[in-house]
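Two records follow; treat each independently.
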Amino acid sequence: HLHVCKFVSLKLIFKRQIKRKLIFGIFQVQIRPWNLSDSDFVMDGSQPLDPRKTIFVGGVPRPLRAVELAMIMDRLYGGVCYAGIDTDPELKYPKGAGRVAFSNQQSYIAAISARFVQLQHNDIDKRVIKPYVLDDQMCDECQGTRCGGKFAPFFCANVTCLQYYCEYCWASIHSRAGREFHKPLVKEGGDRPRHVPFRWS
């Protein structure tokens, strides 16, 4: 239906007349085409992608392409080797989140320490940055020996830690002075990490 759309104030608009029992009128719908090749961008193919140097960026404007996200993050923190825009598995349309992989620990730490990034687009300009939390990681402290070989449910995003922990090791490490206020991150639906309260035994 793109051939029947019109540009209005730099927006692609589709007008449709609706005649139903309770609804009557002409409605305008903004159309935002998405090129599937804009979902991923490899900035430095010589660098292996390390999931432990990857961040989650929440609130990414849907028209923003992976190449644009990569360029912005590289300008701010350097060392970007990959950027991806998360898309709906069925619709293949952006979900409003992305991820960026860095080639070095210094750039990764600089990005997550910032916690927010300015991605100027229309009226929204502040985006959340968090570590990209994986769900198939063993505890970095005990390598699964204290939790029966189960994957670690917690990740500590504080730059003094940046590790995955089982419940036992989280309680042990984070009972130490200076670490008792760290909050564990867990992976939630849509790959978005979230903080969870930790109950001390």
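The next record belongs to a different protein.
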Amino acid sequence: MMEFTLSKINLLILAIALFVIIAQFAFWMKDKVISDISANIAESTIRVVSSTVDTKALCDRHYIPFKRKYTLYDIIDFYYVVELRSEKTKDELSHIVVSIIERNEYLRKRDEATIMHSSARDLNAKVQIFSYLPEIGEPCPTERFVVDVRSAPSPLDMVVVVKETFKGEDYIYLVPCSSQVKGMCERNVMRVGCYIYRKRNEGSNCFDVDVSNCLSAPVPSCWGG
């Protein structure tokens, strides 16, 4: 009887040990897959921006779509946000950083949230990032913006990359928008063109701007008056 009881206990210990090993492996696999997904999002975004800079065209435009979620093993959903950040280099060009953050952690911790993956690159162009907040309703120049692909009321699931060569210098504009709202991406790009026109008091062939509407429309406070 004692041997039978010990045998049962040993089997139970073995089963528990196997469960722990399998659970640890499953968690490791989940973290590995999420890390790979995050790296792919960040690095593919950087590649699109970089290739837009490198094109010989004086004006160019590319669209970067972001999936609202990734599903792992058909049971686990990975939700994320994309942080875009630019910094000036010593020669007044730009260093761009794209970071992927797990969405729930970002909503809880904001700037202290753990970055899943980050990709960075020096660009031979001046980069201007724009934010878009529903309460403002206009693209606003900024050095950092977090693109939330599940934001309400309209998910920001697209970034438009616009290249402009102006007086021999290359400029890159990153403009967030929602593909779910008809015409938003085109409108946001047009409003960025209006912002540039007001800033320079000069038009650009890279933006389809109605100058009269641009000058008569209210100026968002984030444009600097």
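Discussion point: Helices lie at 2-54, 103-109, 184-200, 211-216. How would you locate this feature using only the token line?
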